[in-house]
Give the backbone structure.
Amino acid sequence: MRGVPWLLVVAVGYALAQFVFVVPQLAHVLGWDESVYVSQYDPRIPTAFFSAPRSRGTSFLTAPIIALTSSTVVLRVGLTLLSSAALYAAFRVWRPIVGARTTALAALLFAGLWVTLLYGPQAMPNLWVAFASVGAVGWFLRAVLRGEPRAGWWLAGCVAAAALFRASDVVWLTLPLFVVALFRGRRMLPYLVGGLVLGMAQWVAEAFIRFGSIQERLHVSSATEGTMGLHLNFANAWHSLDGPVLCRPCTVTHVSTGFTLWWLALPVLALAALGFALRDRRFPPAALAVACAVSLSVPYLLLLDYSAPRFLLPAYALVALPVAGLFARFRARSVLVVVGVVVAAQLTSQSVVLADVRDTAAAANQRYRAAADGLRDLGLRPPCLVAGPRAIPIAYAGGCASAEVSGNNMSTSVAGLVKQAAKEPTAVLTEKGQSQPHYTHGWTPHRLPGTPGWTAWVAPAAHQ
């Protein structure tokens, strides 16, 4: 059916799938990381502690929406529309390079992943790095192979966007681009450097303001991530393919092999795509997409000792292009039927995983809401303070400030917390089986209904 704007159809379908399968279940409560990002520019909520590895692109993205309304539903709807538009814009860049058919199929393969659907309406950075990466590699190729005069500026913009969302990821994204530019297309070097400088400026400035230097921020970031170094993280990545959304520590023992075989097929399909592209003299686009995908995967497969499915979203987005090119090259009707069945089976399996992981995430978010409601019934109303495990999302849901006296999100000392508790309603949370914190002597314990045995130790000031 020639003339059908298939990429637009895929983008609209991506939005509709989010509205049907994700937004209703996650409509009313933000998750842990989301609470951190959104709180940074929410005029109604105290800002949560912003750890060293984070970048502020997600906060910038959500700031205009959250400035207008406190509705999580509106935020979800806005992010759904934005992510669908970004899917279209990112893959549209590749149309002059690989054709409309391949572009649309690549977008479908990527959009159909459960992790792509789950994070479309969420305030998280990895999906946006994926869109920026697809755009950056595409514009680079259009500049080098086609000589398009404005492609360099678009390349710089995409690199800057990737840096804003994940400063660490943009280094791995641009590494293959710099290598290629040195040998072919040196005129692209200023655009790559300019995009990096523009996108990293805020992160670098914050490094000096908060941490004293770039080196110190990198040191703190490494410690927060569990001391980055050589870690063969393939097993953790495999175990988390169909959930949980964060595998830290990764204690998952059961893997639904039928739903994760696509991960094992990716390298085979990518190599096959490279082989056919080389035969057809279209090697550079496929090779650069795979090279950037591999480079983006390095920190998450070789340098961390924990995993989350969203970490590899940029790699999946880039690999989808040569894989789609491999599928799209077949013209025989019998082969097309087989390809269609394979794609349909993949989308079906992903929908099954999506339903399970989505329900688990929604249940966790609802526990945060239940805890926040329980604290409000105990007298914690803004201005108020919540500390302890899971304090960040619970505090955000209740309109309170959050604080930690230990761990990766440590933002105050015990003395500072006790001092603040004398000034405003304060509660320290403990999970089931945890003992009372020593600094809460004389505070009143309350079991929080609707939670898995969480207890709130409420300071006396909260009753005044």
Summary: The beta strands are 385-387, 401-403, 426-430, 444-447, 455-458. The chain has a mean pLDDT of 93. Residues 366-463 form one domain. The chain is about 65% helix and 5% strand.
